[in-house]
């Protein structure tokens, strides 16, 4: 018998939340492997049909309660906490590379490696993927600076293509604020050559006023 993987425990204490995060992370890893293998495979149509049937059966095992659209998962913190299903940093998301983030003296640094699932031009990263990586790092830099905000403007510059299967470094840094506006810059380089910018961005983020934030995010917890 299969245990439903998305059903939260009846009483989620600290230990059970950790168990839940570990299980989400493990499933996310297996799904990313499946996605990457899927976009690389040269398997025959018979094999692809057989695998599709198997995947459909696996999906049917994810029974139990489904999260509502604006619900913030119990395993997450918003804003400023973990986002297990984020398409950029979420350990549980098959869409995420995922990016791991650490603070620096004046911003945040993210690390990830893109695979063929993130391909734009053959062998290189999709430009939308670069924008997504930078938007996240720059948005999280706002939160880390104590001014969480939403992107209202993201000016991208693509200097060189981003190689796949190559460790990357993404920087996000707040350069200034003006009332609710936060000005942020970001760059993507390889880990091996952090002085050569492959992509850079300038962004404006805006902290919604409290009423707007409550209306936009009805699942926001009071302490946030
Ligand atoms: C507890 C709180 C949670 C907070 C939030 C946390 C989110 C943490 C996300 C984490 C994950 C990260 C992920 C990556 C970040 C996304 O991806 S965010 C998603 C993409 N962005 C969006 O969907 C934002 C859509 N835009 C909006 O909803 C509304 O514009 C906002 C952001 C709520 C602001 O609305 P508003 O408060 O009515 O703003 P408004 O009064 O029109 O403008 C305020 C000021 O900004 C200026 N402004 C407006 N647009 C622009 C622009 N494009 N360029 C320059 N200035 C502009 C205005 O001129 C105005 O300036 P002043 O007149 O005050 O000098």
UniProtKB/TrEMBL annotation:
Top EC group: hydrolase
Source organism, top-level taxon: Bacteria
Keyword annotations: Apoptosis, Cell membrane, Cell projection, Cytoplasm, Fatty acid metabolism, Hydrolase, Lipid metabolism, Membrane, Transit peptide
GO molecular function, one term: hydrolase activity
SUPFAM superfamilies linked to this entry: Thioesterase/thiol ester dehydrase-isomerase (SSF54637)
InterPro entries per UniProt: HotDog_dom_sf (IPR029069), THEM4/THEM5_acyl-CoA_thioest (IPR052365), Thioestr_dom (IPR006683)
CDD domains: PaaI_thioesterase
Membrane topology value: Peripheral membrane protein
Catalytic activities: tetradecanoyl-CoA + H2O = tetradecanoate + CoA + H(+); hexadecanoyl-CoA + H2O = hexadecanoate + CoA + H(+); decanoyl-CoA + H2O = decanoate + CoA + H(+); dodecanoyl-CoA + H2O = dodecanoate + CoA + H(+)
Gene3D superfamilies: Hotdog Thioesterase
Catalytic activity, EC: 3.1.2.2
Main subcellular location: membrane
Thioesterase domain boundaries: 123-193
Annotated compartments: Cell projection, Ruffle membrane; Cytoplasm; Membrane
A Pfam family the protein falls into: 4HBT
Family to which the UniProt record says this protein belongs: Belongs to the THEM4/THEM5 thioesterase family.
Protein's name according to its UniProt entry: Acyl-coenzyme A thioesterase THEM4
């Amino acid at each position: 018998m299969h245990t439903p993987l998305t059903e939260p425990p009846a009483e989620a204490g600290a230990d059970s939340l950790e168990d839940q995060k570990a299980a989400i992370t493990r499933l996310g890893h297996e799904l990313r492997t499946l996605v990457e293998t899927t976009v690389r495979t040269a398997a025959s149509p018979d094999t692809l049909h057989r695998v599709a049937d198997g995947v459909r059966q696996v999906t049917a095992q994810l029974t139990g309660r489904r999260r509502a659209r604006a619900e913030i998962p119990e395993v997450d913190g918003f804003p400023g906490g973990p986002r297990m299903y984020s398409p950029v940093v979420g350990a549980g998301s098959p869409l995420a590379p995922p990016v791991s983030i650490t603070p620096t003296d004046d911003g945040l640094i993210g690390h990830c490696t893109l695979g063929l699932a993130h391909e734009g031009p053959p062998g290189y990263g999709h430009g939308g993927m670069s924008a997504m990586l930078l938007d996240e790092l720059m948005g999280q830099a706002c939160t880390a600076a104590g001014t969480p905000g939403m992107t209202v403007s993201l000016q991208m510059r693509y200097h060189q293509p981003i190689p796949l299967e190559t460790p990357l470094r993404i920087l996000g840094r707040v350069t200034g604020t003006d009332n609710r506006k936060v000005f942020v810059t970001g760059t993507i380089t390889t880990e091996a050559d952090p002085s050569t910018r492959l992509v850079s961005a300038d962004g404006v983020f805006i902290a919604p006023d409290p009423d707007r934030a409550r209306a936009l995010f009805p699942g926001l917890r009071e302490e946030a």
